[in-house]
Amino acid sequence: MKKLNLAIIGQGRSGRDIHGAYYRSERNAYFNIKYVVDLDARRREEAPTLYPGCIALSDYRELYNSMSRESPSDRASDSLSRYRDTNGWA
Known about the structure:
Blueprint: E1 4-9, H1 13-24, E2 31-37, H2 41-50, E3 55-57, H3 60-68, H4 76-87
Parallel strand pairs: 1-2, 2-3
């Protein structure tokens, strides 16, 4: 099953140590961290180590620009629709 691409906006305690810990765990079968957005340069630099293949950005507006360059089939909203249909989510 293809994983749904997500972005973490803010790699503080919650973004990295709570939500991010789950996304890095073996229990996570559904999600892939594709983007990390953080103002802190150190957190951006360590993001690809935490989430291999992710793109680190400094401003959430860059996220929208990055997503607009993707094909529609790769966009999160399209992926979410497929997951809802596949998994019977409302």
